[in-house]
Amino acid sequence: MTFDPASRSKLTTHDLGRFTGDTMFDRLARAVCEAECLPRKELYEAWEVARRVRRRIRGRRVLDLAGGHGLLAHALLLLDDTSPTAVVVDRLVPPSAAILSERLEVTWPRLRGRVAYQAGDLGAVPVTPDDLVVSCHACGALSDAVLTRAIESHAAVAVLPCCHDDEASVAGGLTGWLTTPMAIDVMRAMRLQGAGYTIWTQTIPAAITPQNRLLIGVLEEMARRIWRSPRRQLFSHARDGR
Ligand SMILES: C[S@@+](CC[C@H](N)C(=O)[O-])C[C@H]1O[C@@H](n2cnc3c(N)ncnc32)[C@H](O)[C@@H]1O
Fold this sequence. Notes:
By secondary structure, this protein is α/β, with parallel strands linked by helices. It has a single domain, classed as 3-Layer(aba) Sandwich (Rossmann fold), CATH 3.40.50. Strands 3-2-1-4-5-7-6 form a seven-stranded mixed sheet, with helices on both faces. α2 packs across α3. It starts with 23 loop residues before the first helix and ends with a helix. 41% of the residues are buried. The chain binds S-adenosylmethionine (SAM). S-adenosylmethionine (SAM) binds next to α2, β2 and β4.
C-alpha cells in the first residue's frame, strides 16, 4: 500500500513507524503524529513550502496569516534559527494548535516561547518591512488580502493560494488562454512585480496538492529606495493621472 501525501486523514501515533529517520522532516513528522491533530497533507504542504521559502528568504519575524495550526510558522523557524519569532494569525485558531505547538517545543526546546497565536482577522495584525508574511492555502480572495498586507507594508511574502474565485479575484482577461486559477495566480505574480517586488514562481509536488503554485516575493532594498524616491512618486502620480 502506498502512503498518499495528499490524504486528509489525521496523522496519529499509528503512523510513527513511517517516519523513523534522523532527518528534520522525519522528526517533524513524528512530533505531528504525536499531536494527533493534523491532516497528513498539511504536514507535507507546510514542509515543502517552508523549504522553498527558506532557500530564498532568511531571517525576519514570520507572520503566518490564516495559519490554522501554524505548522508552517514552526517549520520556518526550524529551518532558519535567525528568525527570532513567529505569529500565527487566524480568525479561528484551532484548539489543537496548542497541542501541536507543545509537541514541537518538546522535540525542539529552542522553539519554546517563539511562536505565538493570535485569534483575529489577518487585516488587523501590524506588519513591518522586516517581516516575512506567509500563507498556505488562504482560500480564494484571502490570498489577495495576504498579498495586500505584505505589499502595503513592504514585507517579504510567500503564498500558496487555493480555491480560486474569479468573482472575488482578478483574472485579468487571461482566461481565453489560461485556466481561471492559473490566470488569477499570474495576475497575483504581476501585482507583486508591479509593486516593485522581485518574484519567484515555483511549485510544490502535485502529488501533495493540485493547488501547488508557490509565489514568493521580496521588495529589494534597492527597489524599496526607488519606490520611495521623489522620481518614482512623480512617475506613479503621472501614471495614476494625479
Ligand atoms: C484552508 S485553511 C488553511 C490553514 C493553514 N494555513 C493550512 O495550510 O493548513 C484557511 C484558514 O483561514 C482562516 N481564515 C479565514 N478567513 C480569515 C481571516 N479573515 N483572517 C484570518 N484567518 C482567516 C480560517 O479560519 C482557516 O483556518
